[in-house]
Amino acid sequence: MRTKARIRFRKMERIHRQSNVRIMMSLSADQRHILSLSREGYSESEIARELALPLPYVARFRTGIVQRLTHEGVIAAPEWRNVIKWAEAEGIVATAKNTQRERSRPA
Known about the structure:
Layout: H1 2-26, H2 29-39, H3 44-51, H4 55-72, H5 80-90, H6 96-104
Helix pairs in contact: 2-3, 3-4
């Protein structure tokens, strides 16, 4: 029975890894910027203004990425904070530790 569970676990790992790659490859530069600004605490309207994008585009991207990651099984719950955690884990946006380290680094 353990062998079947291990096989099932590895299959799910492979599916998640492939999903991650597929999703990451489909992100545009603007979408990556939306993720990084969201991680810094910007609101949707601030992001739209900062990147000169229409507000509906930013809102649709945010809801769409939550739905896509949830559907693919990459994140457990359909919440924006889980999307940010996923983006940090995949290296799309800098983690809090990396950001603090870069700020404290002498020029």
